[in-house]
């Protein structure tokens, strides 16, 4: 997959290259963040994916998770 420059059409549409659609699907969640626009692919089975992520976090103490989240948020604000 190569990098590409795309342009938005007058009606607000953008063309997502075929290789990207093949890898990530055709539905995305758009997030404006600072001076960027981030597209997150929407999984076909989001509940199952979240459950798998949760399993990986099971052995991490909640206080550590909260601290890590706070530190990352603080870093993002800087």
* Helical/strand content category: alpha+beta
Question: Roughly what fraction of the amino acids lie in strands?
Answer: 15-25%
Uncertain stretches of 5 or more adjacent residues? none
- The amount of helix comes to 40-55%
Q: What distance lies between the first and last C-alpha atoms, to the nearest angstrom?
A: 32 Å
Strand order of the largest sheet: 1-2
The total of helices stands at: 3
CATH domain class name of the largest domain: Mainly Beta
Structural domains: how many: 2
Whole-angstrom Rg: 17 Å
Shape: extended
Total count of strands: 2
Stated plainly, the CATH topology of the largest domain is called Pemi-like Protein 1, Chain: D
Structural write-up:
This protein is α+β, with helices and mostly antiparallel strands and about 80 residues long. About 45% of the residues lie in helices and about 15% in strands. It has a two-stranded antiparallel sheet with strand order 1-2.
Task: Give a quick summary of the entry.
By secondary structure, the chain is an alpha+beta fold.
Protein topology:
Blueprint: H1 18-24, E1 28-33, E2 36-41, H2 46-57, H3 62-77
Task: Name the features.
3 helices, 78 residues, 2 strands, alpha+beta, single chain, 45% helix, Pemi-like Protein 1, Chain: D, two-stranded antiparallel ribbon, 2 domains
């Amino acid at each position: 997959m190569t990098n590409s420059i795309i342009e938005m059409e007058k009606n607000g549409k953008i063309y997502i290259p075929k290789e990207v659609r093949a890898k990530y699907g055709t539905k995305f969640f758009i997030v404006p963040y600072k001076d960027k626009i981030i597209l997150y692919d929407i999984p076909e089975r989001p509940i199952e994916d979240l459950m798998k992520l949760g399993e990986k976090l099971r052995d991490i103490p909640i206080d550590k998770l909260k601290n890590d989240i706070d530190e990352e948020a603080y870093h993002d604000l800087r």
